[in-house]
């Protein structure tokens, strides 16, 4: 594994820069070998599935930054990956909490290579039934939480001179409504995340930091259990088109691994929809 640390320079204003070009001995294998990855909300659901795929692709260490306590699925994955999966209790809506978690990772591993800002929540109900407080809570977690994690990771990468990767979890609802379970505020939060990705990628490219997002469609988690039990599920799938099923969380992992890997050194500012074509556009 070739380190993603790169020669650096400082301009007249004291701003630190790293080369954005791959090194002369760069490996083009899609792998996370030697990389330390932080994933928010990885104690369950999509985040845990992503942790599993990162570990399967030889990540040196994966940290779950989550406000909840780990359950049996997390402990089972940890037992299969001795000393490579850890949990740090973290409130992603707190700058202090996220900064402390990343400092802990760097103190233990000496580096941080990737941040997956995945933690989020949804609430499905008609728009006129939402209270303003409910809307604000969704934006605080989904948008402000992603912002806090991305900016905190960028500061660490710049300080360490590491060409790190940030991947934010957006959603297909950032492109179009979810007819199966509408939520105008949730779609709005994910559109903000996807849009923010492009500008952060533009601003931080000078440091060799890449910022991308992934937009999942229907994924089988504790938050979407009700979709398949809907009495008109088959009818909805008929008109949606595409693969008539929910994705496993692990089926998203390949996109995240690619975006976190050194193979993607020129991939930044994009969103990858993973929706089985279901209602893609």
CATH class: Alpha Beta
Number of strands: 9
What helical percentage do the residues reach? 25-40%
Indicate the CATH topology: Rossmann fold
CATH architecture level-2 label: 3-Layer(aba) Sandwich
User: Distance between termini?
Assistant: 39 Å
Structural class assignment: alpha/beta
Summary of the model, kept short:
With 281 residues, this protein is an alpha/beta fold. It is built from 8 helices and 9 strands. The chain has helices at 45-56, 72-80, 95-109, 132-160, 184-204, 225-229, 233-240, 253-260, and strands at residues 8-10, 16-18, 36-40, 61-66, 85-89, 114-117, 165-169, 210-216, 271-274.
Please describe what this structure looks like.
This protein has 281 residues and is α/β, with parallel strands linked by helices. It has a single domain (30-273), classed as Rossmann fold (3-Layer(aba) Sandwich). 38% of the residues lie in helices and 15% in strands. The protein has eight helices and nine strands. Strands 5-4-3-6-7-8-9 form a seven-stranded parallel sheet, sandwiched between helices. Strand 1 and strand 2 (16-18) form a beta hairpin. Helix 1 (45-56) crosses helix 8 (253-260), helix 3 (95-109) packs parallel to helix 4 (132-160) and helix 4 (132-160) runs parallel beside helix 5. The longest helix is centred in the middle third of the chain and has 29 residues, at 132-160. The radius of gyration is 19 Å and the shape is globular.
């Amino acid at each position: 594994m070739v380190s993603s640390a790169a020669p650096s320079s400082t301009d007249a204003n004291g701003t630190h820069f790293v080369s954005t070009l791959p090194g002369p001995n760069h490996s083009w294998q899609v792998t996370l070998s030697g990389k330390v990855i932080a994933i928010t909300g990885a104690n369950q659901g999509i985040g845990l599935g992503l942790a599993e795929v990162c570990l399967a692709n030889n990540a040196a260490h994966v940290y779950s930054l989550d406000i909840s306590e780990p359950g049996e699925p997390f402990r089972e994955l940890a037992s299969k990956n001795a000393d490579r999966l850890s949990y740090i209790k973290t409130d992603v809506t707190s700058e202090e909490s996220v900064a402390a978690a990343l400092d802990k990772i760097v103190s233990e591993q000496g580096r941080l290579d990737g941040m997956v800002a995945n933690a989020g929540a949804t609430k499905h109900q008609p728009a006129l039934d939402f209270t303003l407080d409910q809307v604000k809570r969704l934006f605080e977690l989904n948008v402000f939480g992603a912002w806090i994690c991305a900016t905190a990771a960028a500061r660490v990468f710049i300080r360490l001179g590491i060409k790190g990767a940030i991947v934010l979890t957006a959603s297909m609802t950032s492109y179009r409504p979810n007819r199966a379970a509408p939520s105008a505020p949730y779609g709005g939060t994910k559109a903000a995340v996807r849009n923010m990705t492009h500008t952060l990628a533009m601003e931080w490219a000078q440091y060799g930091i890449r910022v991308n997002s992934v937009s999942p469609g229907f994924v089988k988690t504790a938050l979407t259990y009700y979709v398949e039990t809907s009495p008109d599920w088959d009818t909805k799938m008929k008109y949606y088109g595409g693969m008539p099923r929910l994705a496993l969380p692990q089926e998203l992992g390949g996109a995240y691994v690619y975006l976190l890997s050194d193979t993607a050194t020129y991939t930044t500012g994009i969103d990858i929809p993973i929706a089985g074509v279901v209602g893609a556009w």
